[in-house]
Write a structure and sequence with these properties.
By secondary structure, the protein is mostly beta strands. It folds into two domains: about 60 residues; about 190 residues, Porin (Beta Barrel). Helices cover about 5% and strands about 60% of the residues. The strands form three sheets. It has an eight-stranded antiparallel β-barrel. The chain has a five-stranded antiparallel sheet with strand order 1-2-3-4-5, with no helix packed on it. A hairpin with a 5-residue loop joins strand 9 and strand 10. The longest helix has 12 residues.
């Protein structure tokens, strides 16, 4: 009999918490130090919003009512932070004559309307920086392939001394271009806003890339010719990227602030990409 009374006494000493639902409202009753606390929550979308709180004791009672109105501003967070970095992008890429500029690269004879880049985001990691999950940082790794085309029958060639320069062909070229691959890593800060059921996201941050697989080619008489398998690519590139995304569509920009080719033996150019991301 004594052993049966001990658990019952312990249960009576512990605070009694009760939670139940009434007409889509969550009601919690909690007893702490002789006081009874009652809270009522309304279900608003994915969150529960407190609408009433009462404290009752032998000495005094206290009640508070929480008013929610569509005319009062209310911050709505996200259930979790998810990066809006594009998984795939496709757009124009063209060389400029310097960092933070849009001018054409000197002596490159580029054909910007046919110069393009596509890329894939192959790995990413993100983490929230705010309680509402609307601010965070991202680490993204991607790989891209770039084709820079030339006009007026010019092509990029390399001589025996390792110098790379533009040369004009004596025959008609149907196309002429250089191509290369870039493995890139970016670290960005991203801010998100809720617009109805959609998200607007803006991100910006530094970018580092490893360039490889460069070639110079042209096509003439229906045949493709490789002019050079070494175009003096700088292996390491530094730059920045920016992304504005609404829903499932992004406007993606990245600009390299270091030259693509070795300036000592090659034309000077700084590629910039403007693309659509998905």
């Amino acid at each position: 009999m004594l052993f049966a009374m001990v658990p019952a006494a312990m249960m009576a000493a512990e605070p009694q918490d009760t939670t139940f639902m009434v007409n889509d409202k969550k009601v919690t009753v909690e007893e702490i130090d002789g006081k009874v606390k009652v809270e009522v929550f309304d279900s608003l979308g994915n969150a529960l919003q407190k609408t009433f709180e009462g404290h009752y004791s032998a000495e005094q009672d206290e009640e508070r009512v929480f008013v929610n109105s569509p005319f009062l501003p209310r911050k709505r967070g996200f259930t979790g932070f998810s990066s809006r970095h594009p998984a795939f992008w496709l757009g124009y890429c063209f060389p400029t004559n310097g960092a933070f500029t849009m001018g054409k690269a000197d002596g490159m004879h580029q054909l910007n309307s046919k110069s393009w880049e596509w890329g894939l985001n192959i790995a990413s990691f993100e983490n929230s920086l705010s309680r509402l999950n609307d601010l965070g940082w991202n680490l993204n790794m991607g790989i891209s392939n770039t084709h820079l085309h030339f006009q007026d029958d010019y092509f990029l060639m390399r001589d025996g001394q390792g110098d790379v320069f533009m040369e004009q062909s004596s025959e008609r070229l149907s196309k002429s271009y250089i191509s290369y691959w870039t493995l890139s890593m970016s670290a960005t800060i991203e801010k998100q806003w809720r617009i109805g059921d959609w998200r607007l996201a803006v991100s910006i941050g530094p970018l580092v890339g490893y360039n490889f697989g460069g070639h110079s080619r042209f096509k003439s008489g229906g045949h493709k010719h490789t002019v050079a398998n070494d175009i003096n690519l700088n292996a390491l590139s530094l730059g920045y990227e920016a992304n504005v995304r609404f829903g499932g569509l992004s406007l993606y920009l990245r600009q390299w602030l270091t030259p693509l080719l070795d300036k000592r033996h090659s034309p000077t150019c700084y590629p910039i990409t403007l693309a659509l991301g998905f």
